[in-house]
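Consider the tokenized backbone below.
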């Protein structure tokens, strides 16, 4: 028994944190003579001490009756759900969904129930839900959150305590009714690091192929939640083991058992998964998680040779293409596809700071885009940790980061002035020559001291003044101003380097 998990169960009723909006809406339904129960994810989450993502209520009232009670409501979808708008500024409470007790009948296409039928019995509604931990209902009495009743005909609380995902009723039937439940099972495994009860697991294995019937968008949503969870590595291992992954991301499975050369102790598959795990441990966003997971996806197809001599030339380019195809097939948004494909394509960037120059760093920034350069570094850390290299950033990577900051820094330049060289030539009525540069640098030095001087009126007057100075004097001032600028820049670069503990 996992005592850690037991500990998160509230021991006293006080621990239930149910927001007032929810209590008020339940109470209103009850005052009109209807039953009202919190149900699904929110009950599961409050019982395990987590903050629910949304609050769902279920009731024996029918949609029309619900709408009558709540003038501030709207019909949400074809499942009879009525959304009630609240005053809350908290986005998870702005709309509370009320769904009448429902039965689900036949699923001829294995995706959608043929029609929605309402029922008067809460137990019937709970029976149509996917997993026992999602089939618990909780009703608040007398507007007092400490006074509540739990209806749990499938022993969901026990499974929640023990960390078990178990289908409600006959697993085979349930996955046959709606095959999305197959990937939802994996999502809950990853979100809570739960294990799957044996019969449910066997049934997942036997029914995995039903995923073929499910729309890519629905799969994508559950898959993205899996990747974004705390233990996506656990979910992916089970997906592969049960034959689910081949319906979602078969490209990744190609790395299973593919050994690498002597620098690597892990197979391509293990390495990709470990890289993802590092991204999850750091709670990095989806983009980085997907890039970490897919960064070596091109290796199996580019492998040449065996054992310690194997090579994977071009796996970055091939990997970038495979990534774009795979994410497109899963109908991820274009921006995600583009960015992840870029991060995979450039993950091998050469980072030997003994050899590379600032312009090489600038080139990489151009390839992935400024907004992605720090993401690329994160993918590199995932790659390193995924090889069981130390987590500490070695000098080389810190130096590289410092070079990125240097490259991104906008240098002090006379182009920032309101007047340019041509203006100076016109105002001072002089020929192009070193004098123009001296004047501009003097103006720049003044603007560095006092930004308000960067205006046309002042600078036109100042150009005339400076132009009247003796040539030697102007040269001296101009050169001094240039030195000031260089010193400031030097200092900026030093500050950056100090930040990364590099020289
Ligand atoms: P989350 O906290 O991520 O929202 P959730 O469990 O609330 O998780 P939802 O997709 O919001 O997941 O679904 C709400 C509830 O509806 C579930 O808890 C479950 O009881 C039920 N449910 C959702 N999808 C299905 C399904 N495909 N088959 C059966 N029941 C489902
Ligand atoms: Mg939910």
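A designed sequence for it:
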């Amino acid at each position: 028994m996992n005592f850690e998990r037991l500990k998160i169960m509230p021991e006293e009723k006080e621990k239930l944190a149910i927001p007032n909006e929810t209590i008020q809406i339940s109470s209103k339904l009850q005052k009109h003579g209807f039953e009202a129960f919190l149900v699904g994810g929110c009950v599961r989450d409050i019982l395990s001490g987590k903050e629910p993502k949304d609050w769902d209520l279920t009731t024996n009232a029918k949609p029309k009756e619900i709408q009558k009670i709540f003038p501030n409501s709207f019909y949400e979808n074809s499942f009879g759900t009525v959304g009630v708008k609240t005053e809350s500024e908290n986005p998870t409470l702005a709309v509370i969904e009320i769904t009448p007790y429902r039965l689900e009948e036949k699923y001829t296409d294995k995706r959608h129930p043929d029609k929605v039928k309402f029922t008067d019995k809460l137990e019937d509604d709970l029976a149509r839900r996917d997993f026992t931990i999602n089939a618990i209902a909780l009703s608040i009495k007398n507007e007092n959150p400490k006074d509540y009743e739990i209806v749990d005909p499938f022993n969901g609380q026990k499974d929640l305590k023990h960390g078990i995902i178990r289908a409600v009723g006959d697993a085979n039937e349930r996955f046959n009714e709606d095959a999305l439940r197959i990937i939802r099972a994996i999502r809950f495994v990853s979100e809570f690091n739960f294990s799957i009860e044996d019969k449910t697991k066997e049934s997942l294995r036997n029914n995995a192929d039903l995923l073929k019937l499910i729309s890519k968008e629905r799969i994508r949503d559950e898959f993205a939640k899996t990747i974004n969870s705390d233990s996506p590595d656990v979910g992916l291992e089970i997906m592969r083991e049960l034959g689910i992954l081949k319906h979602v991301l078969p490209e990744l499975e190609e790395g299973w058992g593919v050994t690498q050369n002597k620098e690597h102790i892990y197979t391509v598959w293990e390495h990709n998964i470990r890289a993802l795990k590092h991204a999850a441990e750091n709670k990095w966003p989806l983009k980085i998680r997907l890039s970490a997971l897919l960064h070596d996806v091109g290796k199996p197809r580019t492998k040449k040779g065996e054992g310690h001599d194997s090579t994977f030339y071009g796996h970055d380019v091939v990997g970038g293409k495979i990534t774009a195809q795979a994410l497109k097939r899963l109908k991820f948004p274009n921006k995600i596809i583009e960015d992840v494909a870029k991060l995979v394509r450039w993950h091998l960037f050469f980072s030997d700071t003994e050899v590379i120059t600032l312009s090489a760093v600038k080139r990489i920034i151009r390839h992935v885009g400024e907004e992605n350069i720090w993401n690329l570094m994160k993918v590199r850390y995932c790659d390193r940790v995924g090889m069981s290299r130390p987590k500490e950033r070695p000098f080389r990577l810190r130096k590289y980061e410092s070079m990125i900051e240097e490259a991104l820094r906008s240098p002090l330049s006379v182009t920032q002035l309101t007047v340019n060289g041509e203006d100076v030539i016109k105002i001072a009525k002089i020929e192009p020559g070193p004098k123009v540069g001296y004047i501009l640098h003097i103006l720049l030095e003044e603007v560095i001291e006092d930004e308000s001087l960067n205006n046309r009126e002042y600078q036109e007057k100042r150009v005339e003044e400076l132009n009247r100075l003796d040539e030697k004097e102007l040269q001296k001032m101009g050169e001094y101003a240039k030195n000031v600028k260089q010193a400031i820049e030097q200092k900026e670069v030093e500050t950056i380097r100090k930040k990364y503990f590099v020289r």
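The longest strand covers residues 144-151.
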